Amino acid sequence: MTLDDLNNLNLKDLANAQMSVKVAILAVLFAAIVFAGYWFAWSGQLAALNTAKQEEMSLRDTYLSKKRQAINLDAYKQQLKDIERSFGALLKQLPNKSEMDALLTDINQAGLGRGLQFELFKPGTEKIGDFYAELPISVRLTGSYHDLGAFASDIAQLPRIVTLHDIEIGPEKDGTLYMNAIVKTYRYLDDDEIAAQKKSAREAAKK
After folding, report:
1. C-alpha–C-alpha distance, residues 122 and 137, integer Å
2. What sections of the sequence does the record tag as coiled-coil (predicted)?
């Protein structure tokens, strides 16, 4: 088929045209139909198909994640039990408010039992946390190096959590040593105190 054939083409007499002309016209019409179908219908469907594929991949990832969690559910439950048990054991090492006086007495007795002299034993202001309160106690003791070391060891072995901070040791004029330190004790808050903490947190969040 040549350019002259196209120029001399009579659409009214298309049925009598050469076979090559008919084939060429059919090819052009087919291409036009395919292009029109893609432009007006298939392009939107292809975009929807791509979106559906992406959603399928996302759903598959979510399914696999949930499946892994379901498979490991018993292990997660056991871990939670272990955590709760460990937390309960730690919580038992914190006295409640009514037991604090006995704990302070234990700290005092730990020093006196080693022959140390308390020149200062001054509880400070409690620092309230989420579920516990921290009480710092300023202490100054005098005695031998061995007795001061034994006192620190006794404090560490108390059934309640007691820690030593800001330790300073120096000589006294009589040949003994002094130790200045901050002894920190901890207690858990009672239900009323926890409720007050949550209320204060809510009020602070509103401001």
Report:
1. 5
2. 66-93
Q: Which helix (H) or strand (E) holds 147?
A: helix 145-156
* DSSP state letters, 110-124: HHHTTT-EEEEEEE-
Highest mean pLDDT among 14-28, 73-87, 157-171: 157-171
Q: 9-60 pLDDT, tens per residue? A: 555 555 555 666 566 666 766 666 666 655 555 555 666 667 777 888 888 8
pTM score, whole prediction: 0.52
Please, are residues 139 and 180 in contact by the beta-carbon 8 Å criterion?
Answer: yes
Any domain includes 5: no
Strand, helix or coil for residue 106:
helix
Q: Are 168 and 179 in contact (CB under 8 A)?
A: yes
Tell me how far apart the alpha carbons of residues 194 and 15 are, in angstroms, rounded to a whole number: 95
Please give the tally of structural domains in the chain. Answer: 2
Give the DSSP letter string of 8-59: T--GGGGGGS-HHHHHHHHHHHHHHHHHHHIIIIIHHHHHHHHHHHHHHHHH
CATH at residue 142: 3.30.70.60
